[in-house]
Amino acid sequence: MDLSVIVPTFNEGPNVAELVRRTTAALRGRAVEIVFVDDSTDDTPDIIRTVAATADVPVRLIHRDDPVGGLGGAVVEGFRAAASDRCVVMDGDLQHPPEIIADLLERAEMGDADVVVASRYIAGGTSDGLANAVRTTVSRASTLLTKAMFPKKLHNCSDPMTGFFLVDLRALDLESLRPRGFKILLEILARKQLRVAEVPFAFAPRFAGESKASLSQGMRFLTQLTMLRFGRMSAFAVVGGIGALANLAIMWALTEFGMEYLWAAVVASVITIIGNFLLLEYLVFADMRAESGQMWHRFAKSFAFNGIEAIVRIPVIGILVERAHLPSVLAAALTLVAAFVVRFVFHALVVYAPKKSRAARIAAVVEPLEDELAA
Ligand code: GDD
Ligand code: MN
Predict the structure, then answer these.
(1) Which residue's CA is the closest to the ligand 1 atom numbered 16?
(2) Which pLDDT tens digit goes with each residue over 57-70?
(3) What is the pLDDT of residue 39?
(4) Ligand 2 midpoint to CA 211 (Å)
(5) Half-sphere exposure of 141 (CA within 13 A, CB side)
(6) Ligand 1 binding site (Cβ under 6 Å of any ligand atom)
(7) Which ligand 1 atom is nearest residue 184's CA?
(8) In this predicted model, what pLDDT tens digit does every residue of 269-292 receive, in sequence order?
(9) 117-133: pLDDT as tens digits
């Protein structure tokens, strides 16, 4: 097998036959397979099976009932199942012209690259197929931000946000990837210094169907970027900071509308406690939710921690001032820093502790912490 073509799909039925036809035509004379990793909620799997029955190359279907990690998780699952070490990742909507796969393969065969990126942003490439000016601007800006955050690892990559690339699995450590959301190439390139080459391509309009990109994918991307660069603890800190600001803003607004300040403080706190918890759930600890039991239990633990922290912190300030003779503001600042670290550790080890085996539980907590320490 020369090549496995991994195609993540979510409700892409009308594109399947055309994609298989063009991919097969573009790669005549090569031993290839096409692996659809499908999280669809419609009849896409049936369509893939039908097309597979008459295709000239092996067409495989992996349908996931539990779509962990979304698009990125699907791609990693495809890597695990691939018959070849050489894999191309390509969207299922023909925005990535299958004819380019031949270029990717030829470039890879020169032997000096672990990853060959199909780029919209080098001479000969275009991003004209992006739906509108907003998407183009967002794509450009996030590319710049990402390159600025990983200047060395992304030095040779003009398009880290593309979903179209070839990778040699022998150069990757699949276990170290933490796929979440759309940007799987970024996850691969940011984890490890790899040799990157590029070929240009023109990003085409969709053949059929609608884009699955959304604002929540955008938020997930920003969290991914923060976590890759600074670790989970910083994403946790950013959420805490946003919460503190929101708390003040809400309190200010309520008192402006005439609410008594103590009531305003209570309402602001309740809203920010819930808001913060949701941000932790869906962004910071999104990858640990599935294994850590019921959301309601996590909320109870997180809420209890806030209460206990508030009760414990004040007497500790007293002790630091009375016994250790620290200035009161310094004492308060120290307790805030300590509370932050303890809160993070408590959430990572207790609130989001996996419910599985003890060994798996320790590994899930310790390995990411090790990664962060290393970073
Ligand atoms: N298995 C699986 N699971 N596939 C998914 C999921 C999911 O949760 N979400 C989306 N996909 C599939 C889609 O079916 C499609 O084949 C591909 O992933 C890309 O999704 P689109 O909805 O077409 O996204 P896009 O066109 O906005 O984004 C593309 O362009 C970006 C660059 O601007 C993707 O290629 C991104 O990877 C790329 O970064
Ligand atoms: Mn698309």
Answers:
(1) 92
(2) 999 999 999 898 89
(3) 96
(4) 5
(5) 9
(6) 8-10, 12, 37-39, 67, 70-71, 74, 91-93, 95, 139, 161-163, 182, 211-213
(7) 37
(8) 889 889 999 999 988 898 888 888
(9) 999 999 999 988 777 88
Domains of the chain: 3-213 (3.90.550.10), 229-358 (no CATH)
What is the pTM (predicted TM-score) of this model? 0.78
How many other β-carbons are positioned within 10 Å of the β-carbon of residue 317?
Answer: 19
| Ligand with minimal distance to 120 CA | 1
- Kindly report the backbone phi and psi dihedral angles of residue 42, in degrees, each rounded to the nearest multiple of 5, phi listed first: -115, -150
Query: What is the atom index within ligand 1 of the atom nearest the CA of 64?
Result: 1
CA–CA gap between residue 136 and residue 130 (Å, rounded): 6
Out of 89, 212, 215, 216, give the residue to mutate to test ligand 1, the one with the largest number of ligand atoms within 8 Å of its CB: 212
d(CA 150, CA 119): 17
